[in-house]
């Protein structure tokens, strides 16, 4: 299994972030072709108390090729454009193979 | 479901890191009481080509309380001590609620 992992640092305005993420961005990301599952991990702390992160989103695909195709599809490009608009300074994106 | 998420940046020596992670650290982490699943995500790139990350480990627990108890148990402390020894400068740890 392959994952596209989006790691979001804490935004200044978490309410505005969550509203846009839940109502606009997640529905756009969910339209990517080949997406098997979108799992949202909401960060609530860390071993030392606080965490600098707000959210980690994991998008599951069958193969590396399916992930590449999804990002290059119109739906993937639309999700990417929206992402850069509302969270360009907060997010980092990573490709992972799950063991 | 609750996750303890460990995010590792790329080490200088990936072979030495992977050897220690696979042969020493993961078996120690797997002994934590209440652990339901340990999932290892090996990072192989990102949308811009490379990624600054090497590995993301996700440890699943039933409740926030079970995670706290696991970290405070002797097995959790042993895993934490080992972690700081081999990856203290590379790792960040986060608590997450899964939707």
TrEMBL record, chains A, B:
InterPro entries: Dimeric_a/b-barrel (IPR011008), EthD_dom (IPR009799). Residues 11-87 form the EthD domain. It comes from the Bacteria. GO terms for molecular function: oxidoreductase activity. This is EthD protein.
